[in-house]
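Structure catalogue
Derive tokens from sequence
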Amino acid sequence: MIVAVFIVTFLEIHPFQDGNGRLSRILTTLLLLQAGYAYVPYSSLESVIEQSKEAYYLALRQTQQSLLSEAPNWQPWLLFFMRALQQQKRRLAAKVDREKGALATLPELAVRILDYVRDHGRVTTRDMVREFGASPNTL
């Protein structure tokens, strides 16, 4: 919630003539990463916001209009922000499921190569020929 409050306040300040929205989304990613949300760079929050622009601007406006009052109304922005993060996470889960499905259809040699690369890092074709006995053309 601290990240959401920071972002809505940053956007209210509007420190630059242009690019405040893009910068706020970069800052959101950075702050979420620092807060332990490790999944954030693997799914685009920008695209989630782009697809719900009307709700984004409405929530932003509703909260910003109350920021200088004695009791700011954080609810519209916090709800939007949390739903956007939820949607981002759902998209990533769907992407992971698709990738798992793609891995299930790989030939056995390809799976063995991927496992080897995961265990050893960078490898060469020569390493693969030596390890698996397959021809360079097959690899």
